[in-house]
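seq:
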Amino acid sequence: MNSHITVTPLTRRIGAEVSGVDLTQPLSEEDKQGLFDALMQHQVIFLRDQKISHEQHREIGSIFSDLIIHPGAKGIDGYEDIVAIHADKDSKYIAGDNWHSDLSCNEIPPMGSMLYLHTLPQTGGDTLWSSMYAVYEALSPGMQQYLSTLQAEHDANHVYHAIYGDYGTAYPCNVHPVVRTHPVTGRKAIFVNESYTTKILGVSKNESDGILQMLYNFTKDPNFQVRFNWQPHSIAIWDNRCTQHFAVWDYFPDIRSGFRVTMGGEKPE
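struct:
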């Protein structure tokens, strides 16, 4: 790793703050590799005091993978792959105020996301991330083995019709394994979430509901989480393949505003 980059873990299981790099300047290959390695190790990384442009946002996101277009939220003018994240006194809802992995409903779910916030409330507006590695590893060997045989349905329609209406004909609905293997680290992670996952296939509704609720309860365990206190011009980059996150809406009617890009992934296995 480039000696200028400092990576400071925030908890034992997930999250690190990265310093010593200026994202408003061209990055060396060592800097890019350092950011990539930090993300693979810590699952979510944070950088502060980074007043980036839209072009720089796209360039940095592309370090990790090609950017994709959100199937529900329209991009901003001139940048179809950048989504505005904004809440104020007129908001009736906010993006992400429940536990989820971004767009797990896609046939090929994204590998990650990068959120840049430029305007923050004076207090509140934190985001939490939970490690799905840690959730998997907390389960008994027998439960790990059983869950590894199951698949679950991930459906966006009940989420996005309520928020965006009929943007297009139908939102994605796809089936993925309940346990996935990370393509870079080789570690296993739970891959169901309260927002998109509707059912586990091949079992009764009672069994499906019980398994999912157990896994959602593990996700909410603070022992598996990191909480980030945003400041103006902070950035979070996270790996959707092994984390879930939750945006806390405790700042109404204040403004919380920024932009997000989404990085393409691979079919879960």
